[in-house]
Automatic annotation (TrEMBL):
<comment type="similarity">
    <text>Belongs to the eukaryotic-type N-acetylglucosamine kinase family.</text>
</comment>
<feature type="domain" description="ATPase BadF/BadG/BcrA/BcrD type">
    <location>
        <begin position="4"/>
        <end position="150"/>
    </location>
</feature>
<protein>
    <recommendedName>
        <fullName>N-acetyl-D-glucosamine kinase</fullName>
        <ecNumber>2.7.1.59</ecNumber>
    </recommendedName>
</protein>
<dbReference type="InterPro" id="IPR052519">
    <property type="entry name" value="Euk-type_GlcNAc_Kinase"/>
</dbReference>
<dbReference type="GO" id="GO:0045127">
    <property type="term" value="F:N-acetylglucosamine kinase activity"/>
</dbReference>
<dbReference type="Pfam" id="PF01869">
    <property type="entry name" value="BcrAD_BadFG"/>
</dbReference>
<dbReference type="InterPro" id="IPR002731">
    <property type="entry name" value="ATPase_BadF"/>
</dbReference>
<dbReference type="InterPro" id="IPR043129">
    <property type="entry name" value="ATPase_NBD"/>
</dbReference>
């Protein structure tokens, strides 16, 4: 059996497109704007300050650098992205496009590794970013479909291992009938 792996190497090595990564991109965008390194206004700061109930950048950084700060907390920052996109925030839209692009590169790389030749195929999507951010999910599908138009997409609603087991049992049952 062929097993291929691409991505998911963890937040310290390479986890592009993940909730943690999106949260980090939001935080970096807010800090760049605070520093004056960008002239683009962003609503992300207002949304994050409201979410965390902080009033200034120092309080935000105290939250981030708290000894008990977790990866899940960084990922939770991503929850403000959709609201900012709905408000037309260019920075948020750029982050969403970047996340979708990174995730599509992962999927396309796997398809290339398995020598996918373009037949009708269902790609099963999983992960909080694809489940909770319609814009990222739609862009991801668009990017993958541009290269591989015969792929359809289905969103997994179970944990990855549970979904794999259900699919395997379904295939076994088909063979045994």
């Amino acid at each position: 059996d062929l097993i291929v792996r691409t991505g998911g190497w963890g937040h310290l090595a390479a986890d592009e497109g993940s909730g943690y990564w999106v949260g980090q991109q939001i935080l970096r965008a807010i800090i760049r704007a605070e520093d004056g390194r960008t002239n683009k206004p962003t609503y992300l700061k207002t949304l994050l300050f409201e979410k965390l109930q902080v009033t200034n950048i120092e309080q935000l950084l105290a939250w981030v650098y708290h000894p008990e700060f977790t990866n899940a907390q960084m990922a939770s920052i991503s929850s403000i992205l959709s609201d900012a996109i709905e408000r037309g925030d260019e920075t948020a839209i750029h982050i969403a496009k970047s996340a979708a692009k990174e995730l599509s590169i992962l999927a396309i790389t796997v398809l290339e590794k398995i020598q996918y030749t373009g037949e009708v195929f269902t790609l099963y999507m999983n992960g909080g970013i694809l489940r909770n951010h319609i814009v990222i999910k739609d862009l991801f599908q668009q990017y993958v479909s541009t290269k591989y138009p015969n792929i359809s997409f289905e969103l997994c609603h179970d944990a990855p291992i549970q979904y794999i087991l259900k699919r395997a049992l379904s295939e076994v049952n088909k063979v045994n009938k």
